[in-house]
Amino acid sequence: MSTITVAGKVLGRFKPLFTDWRVPLPPSIGDGGEVLTLRILLTQIVLSEVVAFQTRQEQRRLVKVFTKAEIEQKVLLGKVDMGGEDLNQEVDPQIAVANALQSFEDGLYFVFIDDIQQHKLDSEVIVNPDSKLLFLRLVPLVGG
């Protein structure tokens, strides 16, 4: 299964928006299957993140038991979270995809694949196993 590295940055800041991660590409891409468009790629990324979010929510519901060494390590990091929480945060995957696509069309973020800016959702994109997709979030000026 092919994957692509996803990175995020905010314009004007040095620190990345999040730690880079890899997302699988749809299995029907290539080998005579459908053409990969930016819309399909963004949809895959959002759906993958929704599943990851739901998994993290399920894990937070479980109460964890830590050893003394684990507790000391977490204290040094600034937070000891034992779990046992149900935040009741529901995410509709289709709404999340629609919001991401609309935000791209509204110019709230740019997408670069291997340093090439992508301009249209329905344009074909070329990716390979060492490709990197960068989300560049724009920050509006204060008062403007």
Description:
- The termini are far apart.
- Helix 1 packs across helix 3.
- A 5-stranded mixed sheet has the order 2-1-5-3-4, with helices on one face.
- It has a single domain, classed as Ubiquitin-like (UB roll) (Roll).
- Helices cover 33% and strands 22% of the residues.
- It is built from 3 helices and 5 strands, in the order ββαααβββ.
- The mean pLDDT is 83.
- With 144 residues, the chain is an alpha+beta fold.
Helix content: 25-40%
Q: Report the top-level CATH class.
A: Alpha Beta
Question: What's the rounded overall pLDDT mean?
Answer: 83
Main pleated-sheet profile: 5 strands, mixed
Please give the radius of gyration in angstroms.
18 Å
Number of helices: 3
CATH topology: Ubiquitin-like (UB roll)
Number of strands: 5
Low-confidence parts, pLDDT < 50 over ≥5 residues? none
Structural class: alpha+beta
In order across it, which strands form the biggest sheet?
2-1-5-3-4
First-residue to last-residue Cα separation: 44 Å
CATH architecture: Roll
